[in-house]
From TrEMBL:
Residues 10-141 form the Saccharopine dehydrogenase NADP binding domain. The chain crosses the membrane at residues 272-295. It comes from the Eukaryota. The keyword Membrane applies. Keywords: Membrane, Transmembrane, Transmembrane helix. Gene3D superfamilies: NAD(P)-binding Rossmann-like Domain. GO terms for biological process: glycolipid biosynthetic process. Signal peptide: none annotated. GO terms for cellular component: lipid droplet; mitochondrion; plasma membrane. Belongs to the saccharopine dehydrogenase family. InterPro entries: NAD(P)-bd_dom_sf, Saccharopine_DH-like_oxidrdct, Sacchrp_dh_NADP-bd. This is AGAP002652-PA-like protein. It comes from Anopheles sinensis.
Length: 430
């Protein structure tokens, strides 16, 4: 880094992309008092984006530093990483574009957060770079957006409220809109692309996990069984529910494994579901999922999905993404049903087994608005600023972590609650 250049607290990389633009917008408030800048390949495009955000926010952004960095130019990535303490990486799919940025951050000694929802990428980064990140004293945290922050920290929150030993958690995600849905995209193309490659390479996970965890967890009883593929749950007012195919379970289980390995704490079993108000919605989503699953297996099928996202998603995904009005009027809720034992029944060793079935239950909930982009960008920025302010409350001296493991002892949940999220107990432990 040039000695005349000011070291920034935060740089938002990929700032001219869809997620990057909204991260800048949320950053105007959440990064106040910090020195922050933006980065990307084209200085002109970045200036244009700043101009757009200036008008939208009615805020002068002419003094925001602009850094040019190209994913194909490792020297430029290193220079960018050297300019800041924490890098917010918005350039996905991370399977293709994430690793060079992480390498640059490790070399520069810079913390890194991103919004990846790609289990193969996240687990491979942990396998290959955890030790290097520890040695450099930096934190690399993926899955810092919706929906893994609510799912992972929501599990942490539930356990805080339980006052006992939690055996298992089942999560139910649902969405609602304040305005009637009139069609149109609900997903941006980048999310669609990440999902295609994630599903296409799902078979990599078993091998990765064998290398990542040399020993298997004990067979804790009772085992949390899968619900029927289609079922109704009173937790979500009798809505139809199906298994959620996203990265939530992968992320939560990595955090739980960390707590077991490092803190000798009994890991919480977890299953994730998504709920729909009507059977018609379920059938529509199921049809898209079947087509998506079949085509993702073949190169030609993936090319079709990538070339015609609107067609194969029945209009739910597009290059333009959802409208701002649709995003701002969309709300999400994730409900958590936790089951376990009272604190009086706590075992001496984490590997010990209970002789009686769990009888204590609790229901908690995490809610927010604009899940895909507003809530994602808020949680992404707060994940970065928490590293700046509370690194002493994070595990060890650095490493590659999921958000639950990284932020469990920090004030991130409280910060989220001040910025549009709610974490609450719906039905207390009994």
């Amino acid at each position: 880094m040039d000695q005349t250049e000011e070291k920034l607290d935060v740089i938002i990389f990929g700032a001219s992309g869809f997620t990057g633009k909204y991260t800048i917008f949320e950053g105007i408030k959440l990064l106040e008092g910090l020195r922050w800048g933006i980065a990307g390949r084209s200085r002109d495009k970045l200036r244009q984006v700043l101009g757009e955000i200036e008008k939208k926010a009615d805020k002068d952004l002419s003094e925001v530093p602009i850094v040019t960095a190209d994913l194909k130019d490792t020297d430029s990535l290193k220079r960018m990483a050297e300019r800041c303490k924490v890098l917010i990486n918005c350039c996905g799919p991370y399977r293709f574009y994430g690793e060079p940025v992480i390498k640059a951050c490790i070399e520069a000694g810079t913390h890194h957060v991103d919004v990846s929802g790609e289990p193969q990428y996240m687990e491979r980064m942990q396998l290959e770079y955890h030790q290097q990140a520890q040695e450099r004293g930096i934190y690399i945290v993926s899955a810092c957006g919706f929906d893994s922050i609510p799912a992972d920290l929501g599990t942490v929150f539930l356990e805080r409220q339980f006052d006992g030993v939690v055996n298992s958690v089942e999560t139910y995600m649902k969405f609602s809109s304040k305005i009637p849905f009139k069609g149109g995209a609900v997903l941006h193309y980048g999310t669609w692309e990440s999902a295609i490659y994630g599903l296409a390479h799902a078979n990599e996970l078993r091998g990765l996990r064998t290398q990542l965890y040399k020993t298997r967890l004990p067979n804790f009883q009772p085992r949390l069984k899968n619900r029927p593929v289609l079922h109704k749950s009173s937790i979500v007012d009798g809505w139809w529910s199906v298994p959620f195919p996203g990265s939530d379970r992968s992320v939560v289980m990595r955090s739980q494994r960390h707590f077991y390995d490092v803190e000798k704490k009994r890991p919480i079993q977890m299953k994730a579901y998504i709920a729909f108000e009507s059977l018609l919605h379920v059938l529509g989503v199921a049809l898209v999922a079947i087509i998506f699953s079949i085509l993702s297996r073949f190169k030609f099928g993936r090319q079709l999905l990538l070339k015609f996202p609107k067609l194969f998603s029945f209009g739910f995904c597009s290059h333009e993404g959802p409208t701002e009005k649709a995003m701002e009027n969309t709300e999400f809720a994730i409900l958590f049903k936790g089951v376990g034992w009272d604190k009086e029944e706590k075992l001496l060793e984490p590997n010990d087994q209970y002789k009686s079935p769990p009888t204590k239950k609790i229901v908690t909930k995490v809610t927010g608005t604009n899940p895909g982009y507003g809530a994602t960008c808020v949680s992404l920025i707060l994940s970065a600023t928490t590293i700046l302010r509370e690194a002493d409350k994070m595990p060890g001296s650095g490493g590659v972590f999921p958000p639950g493991a990284a932020y469990a002892k920090t004030s991130l949940i409280e910060q989220l609650c001040k910025n549009g999220f709610t974490f609450e107990v719906v039905k207390g432990a009994n």
